[in-house]
Amino acid sequence: MDLLTVRDLRKSFGQFQAVKGVSFTVKKGESFGLLGPNGAGKSTTINMITGLFPPTSGEILLSDVNVVKTPKQAQKWIGVVPQEIALYQDMSARENLKFWGRLYELGGKTLHNKVDEVLEIIGLSDRAKDKITTFSGGMKRRVNIGAAILHNPELLIMDEPTVGIDPQSRNHILETVKRLNEEGMTIIYTSHYMEEVEYLCERIGIIDHGEVIAEGTLKELRQKIEDRSRMNLTLEHTEGNIKRITPVLMRLFSEKDFQIQDNQLTVFHKQPQMILSELVQAVTETGTRITSVDIVEPNLESVFLHLTGRNLRD
Amino acid sequence: MGFWWLAWKDLLLIIRDRKAFITLILMPLLLIAILGAAFGNMMKDEDVTIKKFTLGVVNQDNGVLSKVLTEEVLAKNMSDQIKIKFFQERELQNNIRDHKLDIGIIIKPDFTSALFSGKETKVKLLSVPDPGIKPVIVQSVIEQFAQMIPVQAISVSQQGKARQQNDFLKTENLFKESTVSKKTKPVGSFQYYAAAMGVMFLLMTVVQGVTMMIREKEETVYQRLFLTNLTYSHYLIGKMLGLIILCLIQAFIIIIGTSLIFGVNWGPSVLGIITMTIAFVINACGLGMMAGALIKTEKGFNVGGMLGTQIMAALGGSMVPLYIFPDWVVSATKFIPNGLALQSYLKLMSGATFTDILPAVAGSIALGSCFFAIGLIFLTFERRGKYA
Ligand SMILES: Nc1ncnc2c1ncn2[C@@H]1O[C@H](COP(=O)(O)OP(=O)(O)O)[C@@H](O)[C@H]1O
Ligand SMILES: [Mg+2]
C-alpha cells in the first residue's frame, strides 16, 4: 500500500526552479532514501511534503489526505526531523520533548510515559534534566529526532539528521532509525552520505538539480552502472595531459565509461583487476605520471558520478 | 490547547533569562525607588517644595471665575510656589519663545460662562520644551479648581479635550481653599510620573516580547512549530497570551509597589485600575503582535521598532507631558495604546470612577483586537506569498 504519493512536484523561488517535477511513492513500512548533493532540492522537497510550504504545482497524498490542501490534517501523522536543530536551547531535553509533545496534543500520563520512552530510545535518559545548550552536536541531533517521534507518527521524515556530528552519535542515530523502521515506522531519509542511505534504505531516489535522476532499490541502481567498479587515478597535472590521454583512453574504453576532471581520471569497468595494468601502462606512455590508484566497488557514489559526471560531495 | 503551552514556554524562557527578568521586574521597582527618592520629599514634606516660578497669565475672560482662579487661587493660595504675571497673548508667546518665561496659561473668553453652564472650555498651557514639573502643578490646580464648579466640564492641557464630569453639587461652595492646597493635589507630579513610567515600562516589556518573537521567527524552531498541530491563529494567540500575562504581572508589581512603598494614589477605583490595566495590556500586546507578525528580522525591528516605540512613548506622554503638542496630536494619541492608558490613569487618579473610563477600556480592547487581527491576516498571507 502506498503511504505517500508525490506527483510532479515543482517549486520555484522567484525565477529559480529548486524542484523540477519530482515524483515518487513510499510504501507503508518502507524506508525511502533521498540521496543528493547539497543544493539538490532535498530540503525543498521535504518541506513541501511536511506541509511547511505549498508547492508551486504538483500533488502530495498521504494515504488519502491531500497534504497541499489540508496540511494540518496530514501533519498529525508525520514526524519531522528538520535539517537544523529546532529546539529551545534554554530548556532541558525533557522540557523540550514535553513541549513538542504537547503541541501534538499529548498530555498527562501518556505524555509523561512517552517522553520517558523517547529519552530511552535516543539514549539520553541520564541527561534529561540538562539544558540543550550543554549538549554536544550529536546529542542535540538525537533530541531533535526525539521530538519528532513523540506522537507515534506513521511517517518519519528526516532531513540530513547526521550532518556535522561525531561517528559515535552518527552510528547511534543510524541504528535508532533502523530499529524504528523495523518496528514498522515508514521512513524518508535524506542525505548526501551514500553510506547512510545504503545502510538504511530499501529504496533510494537520487536527486540532482531538482530532479530525481534515478530511483530504485540499491540493487537496481547498481545495475545502472552494470555493476561496474570504478578506478580512480590521480594524475600529475601538467599542461596538455588531458589532450594526450583522451585518444589513448578512447582506444581502450567507450567514451561514456571514463571521465577526466582536473587531475582525476575515473574509469568504469566490470573487472578492474583485468584492465588496470593496461590502463596504467597506456597512461604512463603518454608521459603522464600517476600519483595514486584506487579501485572502488560498485556503489551509489559511482552511480551518481556515472549519471552526472560529478561527485556527490563536491 | 497548543497556544497555552506556547505561552507557558515563553514565560518559562523569560524567567530563565536572568537579564530579561531583571529588566522586567526589578528595573521598574528600582527606577521607581530612585524617582521616589527624588520626589519623595516633595510628597511628604512641605518644606522642600519646588522652586518658586512665574506663571504668565493671559486672561481673556471677563467673568468672575477666571478672576477667582488667577487672583485668589493662583496668586494667593499658591503664593509660595507661583508668582503670577499678566500678559497679552502675543506678549506671552514671545516671552516663552525667548525663554524669558517658562510657562503660561491662556484663559479663553468663555471660561466663566462655559463653566457655569456646564460646557467644555479650555485653558491653554504654553511652556518651554523642558518645563520640568511646573505644568503638572499648574494643571493640577486648574483641574482641581474646575472640579469645584457645580456642574462642570473643563478640560485642561493633558487631554486637551478630555472632560471631567464628576458632578460636584455643593453649589454654595464655589471652591474650597483646602482642596487647592499642596497636600491634596489632584494629580501630583509623582503620581503623573508613576503612571507615565508604568505605562512606559509596559511598553518596553511589549518591545522585549516582540523582540523575542521576531528572534524566534528567525530560528528553525519557528518552522517546526507549524509542523505540529499548531495553527497560525493559535500561534499568535499563544504569543499574545504569554506577553499579556507577563505585562500584567509587571503592571501590578508597579502599581502595588508604588502605592505601598511610595504611597502613590492610583485613585479610588480599584476596579477601574484593574480593568484599565488589562485593557491597556491587551491593546499594547495586540500592537506588539502586529509588529511581530509584520516585521521579519530582528535587525529590521531594531531599526523600525525601536524608533516607533520611542515615538510612541513620547507621543503618549511618557517622556514629556502632552501639552507641548497641538490639540489634534493629543487627540490622536488616544489611538496609541500608551497615550490612552496614561490619560485614563490620570483620570482615575483624579477621582474618575469605573464607568468614567469604560469608553477607554472598550476602545483599548477594540483597538488591540484590530491590531491582532491585522497581524494574523498578515501572518497567514505571508506563508502563501513568501513561498508560492
Ligand atoms: N527560500 C529559498 N529562496 C530561494 N532559494 C532557495 C530557497 N530555499 C532553497 N533555495 C535554493 O534551492 C536549491 C535547493 O535547496 P535545498 O532544497 O535546500 O537543497 P538541499 O536540501 O538538497 O541541500 C538551492 O539552490 C537553494 O539555494
Ligand atoms: Mg537540505
Compose a concise summary of this entry.
The complex is a heterodimer of chains A (314) and B (388). By secondary structure, chain A is an alpha/beta fold.
* Number of beta-strand segments of chain A: 14
CATH superfamily of the largest domain in chain A: P-loop containing nucleotide triphosphate hydrolases
Percentage of residues in strands of chain B: 5-15%
Number of helices of chain A: 11
Looking at how many chains there are and whether they match, the oligomeric state comes to: heterodimer
Largest contact between chains: A-B, 30 and 26 residues
Number of domains of chain A: 2
The strand order across the widest sheet of chain B is 2-1-3-4-5
Molecular structure report:
The complex is a heterodimer of chains A (314) and B (388). Chain A is of the alpha/beta class and 314 residues long. Chain A has 2 domains: 2-222, Rossmann fold, CATH 3.40.50; 228-297, Alpha-Beta Plaits (2-Layer Sandwich). Chain A has helices at 42-49, 71-75, 93-103, 108-121, 137-149, 167-182, 194-200, 218-224, 241-252, 272-285, 300-308; strands at 2-13, 16-27, 31-35, 57-62, 65-66, 78-81, 155-159, 186-191, 203-208, 211-217, 229-235, 258-261, 264-269, 290-296. In chain A, the strands form 3 sheets. A 6-stranded mixed beta sheet of chain A has the order 6-7-8-3-9-10, sandwiched between helices. In chain A, helix 5 packs parallel to helix 6 and helix 8 (218-224) crosses helix 11 (300-308). Chain A starts with a strand and ends in a 6-residue tail after the last helix. The mean pLDDT of chain A is 91. The radius of gyration of chain B is 23 Å and the shape is elongated. In chain B, 63% of the residues lie in helices and 6% in strands. Chain B has 2 domains: 3-44 and 185-387, no CATH class; 53-170, abc type-2 transporter like domain (abc type-2 transporter like fold, 3-Layer(aba) Sandwich), CATH 3.40.1710. Mean pLDDT of chain B is 78; it is low at 41-49 and 150-185. In chain B, helix 6 (134-147) links the parallel strand 4 (122-127) and strand 5. Chain B has 388 residues and is α/β, with parallel strands linked by helices. Bound molecules: adenosine-5'-diphosphate (ADP) and magnesium ion (MG). Magnesium ion binds next to helix 1 of chain A. Residues 42-43, 83, 159-160 of chain A line the site of magnesium ion.
